[in-house]
Structure formats: C-alpha cells, structure tokens
C-alpha cells in the first residue's frame, strides 16, 4: 500500500441513488498526484458500473482551491506507471475521456482555483458553474515552459473559439468567474452565496429524470462535439516530453523559490507570478 493512501483525497456522498457528490479533499492546496488519480479512476469505474446514478457533482472541501495543478513533489514515475485505462489513454486523460462519455451528467461546482488539472476536469464535465467572487480558472502551463496534458488544447477552441482559447492557453493567466462566463469557459458564474443552492437544485432536477433519456441525449450531443482521442493522447505525450526540458525545469525551480507549492501568495495569485518569470 502507498504510504500517502492512508487518508482518502476524494470523498463520495451519495445524496441519493441517482445523485452523487464527489468532493476533493487534499489540503492544503488540493494538488493532483498519483494517489488522487488512482482514487478518481476507481470512482469513474464505480459510476460506469452503477445503473442508478444519473448525476455527479464535483466540488471541493479545501478553501481557495477547487482542484489545483499536479503535485510536483511526487515521483513522476509513480504517475506514469499507472496502467492505461479502457480507452487506451494514459491514466489522467483516460479518466477525463471516460467522464465525458459516461451515461451520467457531470457538473463542476467551482469555488476557488481550478488550475491546470482543475481546469481540465471542468472542461471534461458536461456543465460547470463558478463562484463569481471566488472562482479562478487557469491553464498556466505555457508560462513555465510546459504543455498541458489533460486536453485543453482539444476542448477549449470548440467552447470559446480559437482566438480566445489561445489567449487562455498562451497568456497562462488567471481567469475569474465573470470573464470565464463571458468567454464560454463555464456555463455561468453566480454570486457565491447562490452557487451551492443553484447547483444542488439543478442536479436534483436532472436526477429525477429518466436515465435512458439522459444518457442518449448526452450520447448524441457527444457525437458532434467531442475531440477525437488522438488529440487527447497527443497533448499528454507532449506534456510528458515538456517536463524534462531545461527551460521548464529552470522556470519551475524559480517558481518554487518564490513560494510555489506552499500555501501563500504565489499559489493564490499564480497567474501573476508566472507572468513575471521571464521578465
């Protein structure tokens, strides 16, 4: 057993047989490491096997962070050694593709930072709703010499258009909830005090409907809207190749020296810090 696996990083609350709430709980920063990926894969497998579940809501128990970037203190080999999933993709893109194709409705409730992996999960969900005051979305990878590995290059252009997608990806800057809504990054941004109630009511409403109708409507929408798996695989392969590049290693080291990967200003305002690295 992995030493870090003693405390679960993801919790499932079955509101009903049809409505599950999945909560990320890996304080202090909700980073995504190998244990998180293994737990998430188990959840997706359980969802695929359960005939009753119709709606998944993803949320966070960690203040300030929905789901953050990868765990740069973890052993990369531990992540890359996780077997490929049923799609034939590596572990993280496999999870995202299976979630998008699953015959259930997935909803991201974004309060806090959805940085890198959190943004990729939001894009894989069927719907996403953000706190107007507290949500921050970011594909920060280019700013440290990396390429994102969870498919935002494949997914973002169809949501917001090529030019805005390139702005998000190449600026590596933080996008607040209001701008995310305007760009089509999320369905809506709502006042923080209204976010939980809105998502819970929507999830409960959809969960009351017939699963066959839900699943087949989603299946038919997917036909004309999803990128091919080869694009997801290409993104992951390029991400892995980018990590060992000297330019990336140098920028990541500089970011660590400024407080990256520790609670504090660098993590809270990552877009600002990334933007100053090469200046």
Automatic annotation (TrEMBL):
The lineage of its organism: Bacteria, Pseudomonadati, Pseudomonadota, Alphaproteobacteria, Hyphomicrobiales. One of its GO terms (molecular function) is catalytic activity. This is Enoyl-CoA hydratase/carnithine racemase. It comes from Bradyrhizobium erythrophlei. PANTHER family: EG:BACN32G11.4 PROTEIN, ENOYL-COA HYDRATASE.
């Amino acid at each position: 057993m992995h030493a870090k696996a003693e405390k679960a990083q993801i919790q499932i609350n079955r509101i009903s047989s049809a409505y599950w709430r999945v909560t990320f709980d890996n304080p202090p920063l909700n980073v995504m490491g190998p244990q998180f990926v293994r737990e998430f894969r188990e959840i997706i497998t359980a969802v695929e096997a359960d005939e009753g579940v119709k709606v998944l809501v993803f949320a966070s128990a960690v203040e300030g962070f929905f789901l953050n970037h990868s765990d740069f203190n973890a052993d990369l080999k531990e992540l890359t050694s996780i077997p490929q999933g049923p799609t034939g993709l590596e572990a993280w893109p496999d999870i995202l593709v299976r979630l998008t194709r699953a015959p259930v409705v997935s909803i991201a409730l974004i309060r806090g930072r959805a940085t890198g992996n959190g943004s990729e999960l939001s894009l894989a969900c069927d719907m996403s709703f953000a706190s107007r005051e507290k949500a921050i979305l970011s594909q920060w990878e280019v700013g440290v010499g990396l390429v994102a590995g969870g498919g935002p290059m494949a997914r973002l252009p169809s949501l917001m258009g090529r030019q805005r997608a390139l702005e998000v990806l190449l600026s590596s800057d933080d996008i607040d909830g209001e701008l995310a809504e305007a760009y089509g990054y999320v369905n809506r941004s709502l006042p923080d005090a209204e976010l939980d109630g809105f998502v819970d009511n929507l999830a409960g409403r959809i969960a009351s409907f017939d699963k066959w109708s839900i699943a087949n409507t989603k299946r038919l929408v997917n036909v004309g809207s999803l990128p091919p798996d080869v694009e997801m695989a290409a993104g992951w392969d390029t991400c892995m190749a980018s990590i060992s590049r000297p330019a990336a290693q140098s920028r990541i080291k500089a970011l660590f020296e400024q407080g990256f990967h520790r609670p504090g200003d660098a993590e809270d305002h990552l877009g600002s810090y990334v933007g100053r690295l090469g200046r």
